[in-house]
Design a protein that fits this description.
Elements (H helix, E strand, L loop, with lengths): L3 E5 L4 E6 L6 E6 L5 E6 L3 E6 L5 E6 L8 E4 L5 E5 L5 E5 L9 E3 L8 E6 L5 E6 L4 E5 L5 E5 L12 E3 L5 E5 L4 E6 L5 E6 L7 E4 L6 E4 L3 E4 L4
Antiparallel strand pairs: 1-2, 3-4, 4-5, 5-6, 7-8, 8-9, 9-10, 11-12, 12-13, 13-14, 15-16, 16-17, 17-18, 19-20, 20-21
Length: 227
């Protein structure tokens, strides 16, 4: 996919088409505060867009074309995290992209490809899922490695998503066998996996205010905790 399309669900038509990437777009993240979103591509760029215009607002170029990057906004919409080639993560002030990253860190994650990057709802923690089946928990302010989660199958090195629960007490990650793995954030203790998908779980989202989760392979499942 080289284009990003803005679809109106009200009347099922495309409002805008955003063009600029020369290779596949692998991540799109919306700002939680503004009508702005970021896209990451295999062409070695991360671009910033405004929903009201088809013109690219900013472009950040990195080495490592062909390696899978990931992007995320913090909950306040002030910081953009860009996980790029070489295992590096760069943090940008969204009000001053042109000044470059204000912090760069490189946790030992043993893989060049990122599946996703996520902030916890309080903005203190960062989660990085990699294509080698490892999920890293980092201090979002310093980049220090706090915990490493693994064990879920990903022999095909698929871009399987991971996420925080709403209260950040649990880490969840999709696996290629159709299960969803869970760990306690503080201790790394694994919990019984959730099962219900016939294929690899590539998408995983927790409701930010409710105890509800959605996951997807070729079908979508909704989850609620038992009373």
């Amino acid at each position: 996919m080289l284009q990003i399309r803005y679809l109106s669900l009200h009347d099922n038509r495309y409002l805008r088409v955003f063009k600029g990437h020369s290779r596949g777009v692998v991540a799109v993240e919306m700002s939680p505060k503004e009508d702005v979103f970021a896209s990451a591509s295999l062409d070695g760029t991360i671009r910033i867009w405004d929903l009201r215009s088809t013109d690219c607002q900013a472009a950040m170029h990195f080495s490592g074309e062909g390696e899978r990057p990931a992007v995320a906004f913090d909950p306040q919409g002030v910081v953009l995290a860009a996980a790029i080639s070489g295992g590096q993560t760069k943090l940008f002030d969204v009000r001053a992209y042109d000044k470059g990253p204000f912090l760069t860190f490189s946790p030992d994650q043993g893989c060049e490809g990122f599946s996703c990057v996520k902030f916890s709802n309080d903005g203190k923690l960062m989660l990085q899922a990699t294509t080698n089946g490892t999920v890293l928990l980092l201090d979002a302010f310093k980049g220090d490695l706090i915990q490493r989660f693994s064990g879920h199958d990903n022999t095909q090195q698929l871009p399987l998503e991971a996420c925080f629960s709403a209260d950040a007490e649990y880490i969840l990650a999709g696996a290629e066998d159709g299960s969803i793995w869970r760990w306690r954030t503080r201790t790394g203790q694994p919990l019984p996996a959730l099962k219900g998908h016939p294929g690899a779980v590539g998408a995983l989202k927790c409701n930010p205010t409710r105890m509800m989760m959605a996951s997807a392979c070729s079908l979508v499942c909704f989850w609620l905790p038992k009373p």
